[in-house]
Amino acid sequence: MVSTHILSAYDDELKFLSRRISEMGGLAEQMVSDAVRALVNSDAALAQKVISDDVILDAAEREVGDKAIITIARRQPVAADLREIIGSIRIASDLERVGDLGKNTAKRVIAVQGSGVPRKLARGIEHLSELALVQLKEVLDVYTNRSAEKANAIRERDEEIDAMYTSLFRELLTYMMEDPRNITSCTHLLFCAKNIERIGDHATNIAETIYYMTTGAQPEGERPKDDTSNTVGAVTE
Amino acid sequence: MVSTHILSAYDDELKFLSRRISEMGGLAEQMVSDAVRALVNSDAALAQKVISDDVILDAAEREVGDKAIITIARRQPVAADLREIIGSIRIASDLERVGDLGKNTAKRVIAVQGSGVPRKLARGIEHLSELALVQLKEVLDVYTNRSAEKANAIRERDEEIDAMYTSLFRELLTYMMEDPRNITSCTHLLFCAKNIERIGDHATNIAETIYYMTTGAQPEGERPKDDTSNTVGAVTE
Q1: Is B233's CB within 8 Å of A180's CB?
Q2: Is the Cβ–Cβ distance between A136 and A29 less than 8 Å?
Q3: Which domains are present in chain B?
Q4: Most B CBs within 10 Å, among A57, A105, A183, to test the B interface
Q5: Which GO terms describe its biological process (chains A, B) (predicted)?
Q6: Which tens digit of pLDDT belongs to each residue from B150-192?
Q7: For A235, phi and psi rounded to 5 degrees?
């Protein structure tokens, strides 16, 4: 009886961690989506909301970290359970950074406001964020189902986001060259695009952590962790 | 006898982790310093070396993670020892990201090459990297000495780097506006500057982890995790 009781309390602790991670994931998604909407619609109030939401995400990450350590100390898990708990610390850290990137995007809303960003570029940023959000949503689903196979598939799809970021990078540079009055606002948009591209990287990190949690092994092969915008301009000089 | 033997093997495992972290820190510092040198001197061969070095750092992070989990499973540590081991996972992750930022900077060397970046801007980037490297070096010393007090002091100094980054951001924008032919290379320099600013953030993360490892508590108060460049251009429209 007693041992069943202990096991069930342990189970509750593990469930607490995974529920908290799912909640963090939902909030991080919302923040990114709100930040891009605020950017595209010049909505300063929505941007402010994203900035406030980040405090909640930071607190949740600390909570997951604290609970994880208490659970390890109390239950002394090994193998899969231990990887699960260590994995939750890693995933919470990635989600917290996704929130930071949403916040940083939101903070640029004021700087871009009223600068008349052409619809086409705003659409480009929106589209990039849609790709990154699909990636994030899918990785959170994979987290719920713990599928190593699907985690590996997500990891391979980050290249699409990188390619789209590089093309947006190029468009923004062209727009700046056409009219130097666009330079300040387009620079902020460049950083917003980079933020979104990095959200894709964090989704990939999370996919790798899930793969490790479920299999105990690192996913095979190098993955493209970087965009290719560094090649823009490389041949022109 | 047996128990002494086990304890000493355990001690060796802990020492292995901290030695590995210090080595990672040394390599990360070197990569950042090389990347900035490569950028300022248009040294493509040195940039290539930084890009190759990143593989070593990635492997070291995985090794620290694996050994940390094995040590927890085998020794079932609690309290300070457990925090020490979890802390090493976190610090290895921050150092791996510092290496990524060095690599990303190195990758932009080709794009900036031959574009005639004025000496003043190159000096600005160098100076920013000197500040970030001092921060990284000090935090690695604090890691060796495990001083919570000094860890807290480092955390407060990140503002200096943020302020300098924002001023460099402004200068780079001005230079782009003066001559649109500078736009491509200056955009890459903006991202290099941002990379270096983020290295300061990682040093701050490490300082917070050390504080947590030694005290079991989170450092008090919010810290400025973001630069203030988002305000540039905010009032001009």
Answers
A1: no
A2: yes
A3: 2-229 (1.20.58.220)
A4: A183
A5: intracellular phosphate ion homeostasis; negative regulation of phosphate metabolic process; phosphate ion transport
A6: 998 888 778 899 999 999 999 999 999 999 999 999 999 999 9
A7: -100, -10
